[in-house]
Fold these 2 entries.
Entry 1:
Amino acid sequence: MTKFDILKQLKKVIDPELGINIVDLGLIYDVVVKENNVKIKMTLTSMGCPMSAYFLDSVSDAVKKVKGVKKVKVDLVFEPVWTPDRMNKKVKEKLGF
């Protein structure tokens, strides 16, 4: 299992409000794969996001589906602050940025 495998799986986690995956939205700041353990550093579009529990559970559940993953740790951070600049180019265009 590689960082690429994890990111590919995380693209299946869709923001229910925007209908776009969390990787392309720029919510994933880092993925570290060490042995069979995965540590993910991610953020949300705002600190008060009512979907935080949904995202934490969805990210953990998605990563656990990758063959070989034994343990997943998701760290929710708000520094650096998320901005639309973190989105990939196609998403920016789709959302009018």
Note: The chain has a mean pLDDT of 95.
Entry 2:
Amino acid sequence: MPEIIDEMPATDGRSVYNWEDMADGQVRKLVKGRDFSCRPYSVRSAARAWAHRRGIKSHIRVLGDEVYVQLGESAA
């Protein structure tokens, strides 16, 4: 039987991905198995949500097991 605890444990609030370092307008290619292990569309959703919460432009494309991410001023 799973243990019952009083409250959820705290987290440090950091993402698995360091979007802050990627938000410089350059295009980055993330490859499944090297840069992430989930579905590529999950990475796309995470990047888009991160940018939206901060009011940062984003351009994200999924091609097979690759996710191309451009965050920041140069994003189309």
Note: The two ends are 51 Å apart (CA to CA).
